[in-house]
TrEMBL record:
UniProt KW keywords: Membrane, Transmembrane, Transmembrane helix
Entry protein name: Uncharacterized protein
Transmembrane intervals: 35-67, 79-102, 127-149, 188-208, 240-259
Keyword flag Membrane: yes
Length: 261
């Protein structure tokens, strides 16, 4: 899992950087991800020949992920490409993970020196994996959800939104506010509760989201004009909510499966 952990941290950092709404230079996101990848490899002593090959493959996949997902969010097309690229990279890294070095290096020495309560019996591999899953759920998970919504037409691309007049109908995302913030929080809570063995509490979090969103969905039903005068009705809002929620939950549950594997 060493290579996958490094990749998840790098992807998470890159996606956190580009989530700054265009305030950062165009190439800053992949650069931040690649630099993070190299620094982590250095401080964990992951520097064997096979490790270097895996890091190069991961860096190439990271650059491709940022480029293709950014293009898909702009024009709404070929959402399968970045999703397939990310999935393929994870499968390849997992498939050849037996060649990976056991992480140690300066990070292991620092953990022993710091004598942190939670790190007493925790290996560097475990720390890397948890860091990767947290960063992945914070930023990359949001992009995966957005790509799936674009693929099924439940979300409009950036180009379509920019070309619309101010009086145009809002898209479903405008009817349900806070998704980009609530999604990462929800995934992290599910991941944390699952790692603590509190699966019942995690299921309550999932159920609570539906209850909290129900008034907003009802409001959308009352305010939406009847077809064909409106392009966004209650069906669109419901599809956006259900698909986005299920994809977000699958990301969290997949992360939990990796963490507990």
């Amino acid at each position: 899992m060493t290579w996958v952990s490094l990749a998840l941290v790098a992807f998470g950092v890159a996606d956190l950087v580009r989530a700054r709404n265009g305030r950062m230079p165009l190439g800053s996101a992949p650069l931040a991800g690649v630099v993070t990848l190299v620094l982590l490899a250095v401080i964990t002593g992951v520097d064997g020949v096979a490790d270097v090959v895996a890091l190069v493959v991961t860096a190439g996949g990271l650059v491709g992920w940022v480029a293709t997902s950014r293009r898909t969010q702009a024009d709404g097309r070929r959402a399968w490409l970045p999703l397939g690229l990310f999935a393929s990279l994870v499968v390849v890294l997992l498939g050849f993970s037996g060649f990976a070095s056991v992480p140690d290096g300066p990070l292991a020495g620092w953990l022993r020196w710091a004598d942190l309560p939670w790190a007493t019996d925790v290996s560097v591999s475990r720390v890397l994996l948890l860091a990767g899953l947290v960063s992945f759920n914070l930023a990359t998970g949001n992009i995966i959800v957005r790509l799936v919504l674009l693929a099924i037409g439940a979300l409009r691309s950036d180009q379509v939104v920019a070309a619309q007049s101010p009086s145009a109908d809002p898209q479903p995302a405008d009817r349900l506010k806070g998704g980009r913030l609530l999604g990462p929080m929800e995934r992290l809570v599910i991941l944390g509760l699952g790692l603590a063995g509190e699966f019942g509490a995690a299921s309550i979090v999932i159920a609570a989201k539906g209850l909290l969103r129900f008034p907003e969905i009802q409001a959308a039903a009352r305010t939406s004009p009847p077809p064909p005068s409106s392009r966004v009705g209650i069906d669109d809002v419901t599809e956006y909510f259900l698909v986005g929620s299920f994809v977000s939950w699958l990301v969290a549950l997949g992360s939990l499966a990796l963490a507990r594997g």
